[in-house]
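Honest question from a wet-lab person: if I give you the sequences of every part of a complex, can you actually get the arrangement of the whole thing, not just the pieces? Trying it with mine:
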Amino acid sequence: AQKITQTQPGMFVQEKEAVTLDCTYDTSDPSYGLFWYKQPSSGEMIFLIYQGSYDQQNATEGRYSLNFQKARKSANLVISASQLGDSAMYFCAMRDRGAAGNKLTFGGGTRVLVKP
Amino acid sequence: DTEVTQTPKHLVMGMTNKKSLKCEQHMGHRAMYWYKQKAKKPPELMFVYSYEKLSINESVPSRFSPECPNSSLLNLHLHALQPEDSALYLCASSQERGQGAPSYEQYFGPGTRLTVT
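Yes, you can. This is the full assembly:
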């Protein structure tokens, strides 16, 4: 069974500074995908970034980058130059591409509060 | 356009009511999902539709009945719910096998906040 662990329940970060959100995973499947989602207080889950298990390079999307360390089974999200609008819950998730379809398993989430 | 829409935004229903949640996407995605999310918890998968056929049911009680009338629409019919079913219900969609992108990232709607009284 797949498992995703986010060990930081909450974090404060100063505006304009970078923040790293931790995510570790466990799977026996050699092919998998890792995702990060942002959930503001409004409730919508916003897709941020994706990393495939066979991707050689770390994924980047604007101010978001994923520090993928396959041997350590970690996929940390780095948000650079934090903005007030980055205050939200962040979820790491793993895709299980089974025969029946896609399933996403989510970590417990990290709440980020950006201070002005 | 990566928009998934859900209606209604809020719903209050009694335990004897019948109501439906609606979800729509126009991204050409052939996989659609229902999730349930309790406060301060991650979303939990309920159902997956692949090419308009139910492919995954995560042992959801029969008082929740999903329906996929066409490739753009997904409904969740609710009947005889319990107060513990109060939660945020999220719909999502993604590409499916045969549609190209290997990432299959899921795009979520804003959710329906359901309160069962």
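Two things worth pointing out. The two ends of chain A are 41 Å apart (CA to CA). Chain A touches chain B at residues 33, 35, 37, 42-47, 50, 52, 91, 95, 97, 100-104, 106-109 (CB under 8 Å).
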